[in-house]
Amino acid sequence: MLESCPASWCTIYRDRISKNLELALGLVPRGRQFCAVLKADAYGHGIQQVVPLVQEQEVTCIGITTNAEARAVRQAGFDGTVIRLRAASPQEMEDALEDRVEEQAASLLAARHIAAHIRAGQYTAGVHLPLNALGMSRDALEISTQAGQTVCREILETLGAHIGGICTHFPSNDLEELHGSNRLFQSQLNWVFDNSDLRRADVQIHAGSSLTLISDAQIETDMYRCGAILYGILKPELGFATTMDLHARIVGLQDYPRGATVGYDREYRLERDSRLACIAIGYENGFRRLAQHSQVLVAGDKPAPIVGKVSMNAIVADVTGLGDIQIGDTVCVFGDRGDVPPTQVAESQFRTIMADLYTDWGRRNGRVYR
Known about the structure:
With about 375 residues, the protein is of the alpha/beta class. It is about 30% helix and about 20% strand. The chain is elongated.
């Protein structure tokens, strides 16, 4: 719940999410499907706010990772396919039965657990066989080895025609590596069909992420699973727009003399008499301590450098000579900065990717929806 007067907050632009989704769907090759990835609470944007936008454009598949996300998707009124995009423990699978989550079966334990619930009439969703294909090496089955092939055959025998999907996750979207991964995946798909009673026409093949979708590679897949592209992280030149701003308030203004130190460990020393603004955001709110050469925008569009170490609940900006700055003024931490893509600035300052930042900011700060 948003405080009545938050010190820091995210503004979420629902119209931009809708437009990004429309643009993304326009990139999907004819005859292919689209899975909207809403894991991590829709990358920090709030699942229950994003689900209606997905439904408006008739997307029939949503990707999640946790049971809480699956429940939120169902509570938001989505009645389509919900796929878990990672392996799950038997306990997780049981708790997700009511929400009809389509699970992955990359181990005999998972396959037998799902099969038991199918026999009991409790599991009515589809099942997906994830292949590693010398890829991410996280939780998918590696059938390039004899041992992996043996397990795969047993999974296929255990679940049979209940397997409705076969998937992989490409580890790199470098064009050459993407083509190589795709060739390997296709050869392993052929092995699966040659060693089972599954029919290609009855199985949905899904591979590729947002980066795959915007690449020039022709990937053989029935469905793309995309998250980042919905939130304007990629390809601003194609019209994709960022969907979250991060703001905070100035809560203190003081003048300090040359030589004064700023922040913990006296790491920063003023080289001139300076006017400093204390801003109510810190690493508790996702303003990382490792941020380098950071700046925020004050008085609308004036850059102010952050000085001293980032505290748990505060940062300090040098606003010397920047005009009429007042306590209570709004400061832009992330948002439109004119001719420089805001994602480029943020990723450089915080030394991480936008998906990480969005997820962190959206969960640590109040959210205002427009």
